[in-house]
Amino acid sequence: MNGLMQHWPLTTTTILRHAMREHGGREVVTRSIEGEIRRYGYADLHRRALQVVHALQASGVVRGERVATLAWNTDRHMEIWYGVMGFGAICHTINPRLPAEQLAYIINHAQDRILFIEAAFLPLLAPLRARLPSLREVIVLTDPGEACVLSPAPVLYEHWLTRGGGGHGAWPDLPEETAATLCYTSGTTGHPKGALYSHRSNVLHALAINTADGFGLRTRDVVLPIVPMFHANAWGTIFAAPMAGAKLVLPGCRLDGASLWELMESERVSVTAAVPTVWLGLLRYLDETGRRLPHLQRVLIGGSAVPRVMVERFERDFGVEVTHAWGMTEMSPVGTFGSSKFADPEKDEEAYMSRKLKQGRVPYTVELKVVDESGEELPRDGHSQGEVKVRGPAIVGRYFGEANEATDAQGWFATGDVATMDSQGYLQIVDRSKDVIKSGGEWISSIALENTAMGHPQVAEAAVIAVPHEKWGERPLLLVVAKDPGLEPQSVLEYVQERVAKWWVPDRVQLVSEIPHSGTGKIRKDLLRQRYGGPVGKCAGDLTGE
User: Which residues face 420 on adjacent strands?
Assistant: First the structure.
């Protein structure tokens, strides 16, 4: 016998409709690309998203077609996002930081029909345009007054929006399994692959991440999603905030420390989310200016492992709670939250910090296990290392455009991350399987070494890669960006030596001017290996250590 409850499809439209009805006046604030601050309420967002639906229909788009965006986090991007999904098309968010060849590849692979693009990204598109046969129309997200600087005269978003009339009427009825959003992986080791999310998966993911141990957003919160919408749904914040009725503050393209602090201060931001590289810039700005974070209560950090010094700075120096999270594009993307199970962590500071630096526990909707090379699940003892596998309703089953399943016969997706899990269910990522260093038959975590080096007061950023070694097979090379020119590599080596096992200590430390990052803020270790990954003694630059 089935239950006798109403069938209510879990579509993303229901999120926006709820925000309009129950929190219609709650603000959505945008620092526009042109620089000014724009404000309106969720009711206005709902109305303009419905205009997008009508304009798509007038433009000849049909359900299931892909509509692409090359855009920052703004109100217009949100309107397109909800409008495209609500129409029944697929919103394909494209990372503008990708190389030109990858941009062309994913637009062609997705067969995008329409592209919404910031004016500043037009130079990225121009040399590729002739190679994009599926693209019928390009619409520029800029104010009409800015059109005079663009040549030839483009179709402007505000003009396009009027094609279908006003933002009234009913949303199309869609099954909850309808495809909604498409996001491609970074593709650093091959062609990018597309994760195709459904309405149902997006709604379930938003519900799961917004529990008290996760984002825990409330109506009275003011949320600043710095993580971009092209990075796996902005980690779900663009769904979770209107679901909760929280005020949204969208930063546009200005993600430097000064601009972010200004928004946090003027809009009284209480919750924000971004990758560690963004927080490095903000903390540097706070150090230089002596400014504080009086309104900020919680900061969500993911994308790569969080250095201990970063957690300490936020919590000790600014009174801001840090929640460490882990996931990936294929997981919508959040898989774990580093919230504590324990009511009184202050009694044991080291135990508290140890838990904070782990990637955390799974929410409901995610199943996770750590397995050995034969696929057998390893004990939850905090020591046994293996590959992380996951499954759940918001985790990829098959990549877009591919015939083969991305999972095994039991539905487990192999993440490529190497980790341990302790008896309390806390996951700790040791490394990516391709980045872990095997030296003399023992494993060395590049992540742990990087985070240790980041504790040195003169180190701005650190990266560790494996380099070949005649005797040991591989040894770690530590690459460091200095905060000031007076940094001595030997002092970094001595600092690390005091804090890790002897055989983990890097043979060499190399000062570099910068460390390359992917479009989502992750360290491009593939590029570092190309440049510095020769045998020990073959790297150019300022080296120390034997």
Answer: 428
Catalytic member of 367, 438, 503, 538: 438
- Could you give the strand order of the β-sheet that contains 334-337, starting from the edge strand earlier in sequence? 37-41, 27-31, 247-250, 222-225, 271-274, 298-301, 321-327, 334-337
Task: Report the candidate in 180, 194, 233 with the shortest Cα–Cα distance to residue 107.
Answer: 194
Concatenated DSSP letters for 14-69?
HHHHHHHHHHTTSEEEEE-TTS-EEEEEHHHHHHHHHHHHHHHHHTT--TT-EEEE
Q: Is 330 a catalytic residue?
A: yes
Strand partners, 322: 299
Q: From the DSSP assignment, how many helices (H) and strands (E) are in the chain?
A: 16, 25
Radius of gyration for the alpha carbons in the chain, expressed in angstroms and rounded = 24
Annotation says 185 is catalytic: yes
| Weakest mean pLDDT among 76-85, 334-343, 475-484 | 334-343
Query: Quick check: is 171 catalytic?
Result: no
Regarding pTM above 0.90, the answer is no
pLDDT digits (tens, 9 = 90+) for 143-192: 887 655 565 678 999 999 999 887 788 999 999 999 999 999 876 557 88
CA distance 180 to 233: 11
